[in-house]
Amino acid sequence: MRRIAFLWVGLAIACIALGAAAAFETRATRLQAIKTVGIVSAIGEEMSLTQAGLIALGNARQSLSISAWGLDELIVQQATKLLGGRFRVQAVSYRRAAFAAIRDSAVAPVNLLRSDPFKELVRSDVAPQGLDAYIVITRARSKLGNGRNVEGIGLAQYRTLLADYGLIHALYEVRVIDGKSFDVIEKRAAAPLDNTGTMRLAGPSGPIDATFEGPAASERLRAAITDLITRSLPVTLGDMHLIDGQ
Questions:
Q1: Model pTM?
Q2: How many Cβ atoms are within 10 Å of 80's Cβ, its own excluded?
């Protein structure tokens, strides 16, 4: 009986491996067939302010508009430059607010059985239609400290009895959506740039200190967020095999 059990386990592992290999081959084949792409970005109109930790700081979600920073325009420009070596990138129009309004990430395990809401928006809200694929860049989420969710562009403060930590973050995920079937070919959340700090998030983030205070704080904050995006986007697109040579 033990031998039979081992055989069943071995067979199951082999089937899983074959299924994963077939899925990878299908994904790679579909990516190779893409010639024209449009880029949608909807992460940068709003900054969240989050407080968490052992000391109660209030649970109300706070946010402020940073639309003047032009982060989504920056992302489209950088992605166009990065992807232009492999694809013909065509400008597209879309309702950014409609994409930004979807707050429940379809990458999360709880949503794996649901239809991805972004593919329906690509079908109904992006023009022109008919491109081979659409690259959709939207907010991602991560847990902070004791379980508070943070998402997208933001500043997070975490306090304990002995210390006070601050983080800036630019959490986002990238989807490749087929322009004909509107299936999600590939999706990936941007990974951390490093994991050496005391506070860590599952995405691009960095510490803040006293240099972010004072009259020029807003400009320093904008520059730091921009740096997180410009350093992480090539890595993310490379991990998705969307950039030649990656």
A1: 0.82
A2: 17
